[in-house]
């Protein structure tokens, strides 16, 4: 009887999948959203790592960490147009930029796998788009881990000034009126991903569209993890994962 907890733990570990978290560094990266004619979604990450001959595919979850290294912080410009960043003028801001930097991961959104015949036309509530065949990437929540005290995420494009798609500095609007990004079928776009402090940010999104018959289709929520000069510290869950990995290797 005294051995039951240990046997149970060994059973759980032996049944656990053999994988570990991956820190994703420099290179082009897309978050792909695919949609079938029947309204089924597939969300995944594809990374063209610098120096690698083939792209690598990852699941869109917290096992894949998009990493921003130290020394890449910028200074927030003055002017109210930049208030969406969530910090004062002259303070540091950390950005994955919309223009590729060979030292950084270059994240974007991709709907190239979606045919225009798969989606119908609709009018989103977001002020930056009108009626069209849209794929919406809607932010649902943000979770922060680190030592920052005023932690915000924002997404924008720059064209003479910031066109702000997402900002958590004024809360998160989950009704689609703000805090979403839109692409047409067959689209591919890179944007600025901004963070107001160092730490780990888990951003949970869902993809949405309207089918040709007018019915709305929504993906399961998926989480993108960003490490701003930070990676998760080892904890009990990671130790369990190491134990599972050892068992996996032993059973090979």
TrEMBL record:
<dbReference type="Pfam" id="PF07589">
    <property type="entry name" value="PEP-CTERM"/>
</dbReference>
<feature type="domain" description="Ice-binding protein C-terminal">
    <location>
        <begin position="230"/>
        <end position="252"/>
    </location>
</feature>
<keyword id="KW-0732">Signal</keyword>
<protein>
    <submittedName>
        <fullName>Choice-of-anchor M domain-containing protein</fullName>
    </submittedName>
</protein>
<feature type="signal peptide">
    <location>
        <begin position="1"/>
        <end position="20"/>
    </location>
</feature>
<dbReference type="InterPro" id="IPR013424">
    <property type="entry name" value="Ice-binding_C"/>
</dbReference>
<dbReference type="InterPro" id="IPR022435">
    <property type="entry name" value="Surface-anchored_actinobac"/>
</dbReference>
């Amino acid at each position: 009887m005294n051995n039951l907890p240990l046997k149970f733990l060994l059973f759980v570990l032996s049944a656990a999948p053999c994988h570990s978290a991956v820190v994703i560094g420099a290179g082009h990266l897309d978050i792909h959203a695919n949609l079938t004619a029947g309204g089924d979604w597939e969300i995944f990450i594809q990374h063209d790592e610098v120096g690698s001959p083939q792209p690598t595919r990852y699941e869109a979850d917290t096992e894949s960490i998009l990493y921003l290294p130290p020394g890449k912080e910028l200074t927030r410009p003055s002017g109210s147009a930049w208030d969406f960043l969530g910090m004062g003028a002259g303070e540091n801001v950390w950005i994955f930029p919309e223009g590729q930097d060979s030292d950084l991961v270059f994240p974007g959104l991709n709907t190239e796998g979606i045919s225009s015949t798969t989606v119908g036309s609709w009018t989103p509530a977001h002020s930056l788009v009108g009626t069209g065949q849209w794929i919406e990437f809607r932010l649902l929540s943000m979770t922060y881990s680190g030592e920052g005290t005023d932690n915000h995420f924002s997404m924008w494009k720059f064209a003479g000034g910031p066109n702000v798609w997402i900002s958590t500095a004024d809360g998160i609007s989950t009704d689609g009126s703000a805090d979403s990004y839109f692409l047409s079928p067959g689209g591919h776009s890179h944007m600025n991903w901004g963070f107001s402090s160092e730490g780990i940010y888990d951003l949970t999104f869902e993809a949405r569209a309207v089918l040709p018959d007018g019915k709305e289709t929504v993906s399961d929520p998926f989480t993108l993890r960003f490490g701003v000069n930070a990676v998760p510290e080892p904890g009990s869950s990671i130790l369990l994962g190491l134990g599972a990995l050892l068992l996996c290797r032993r059973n090979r």
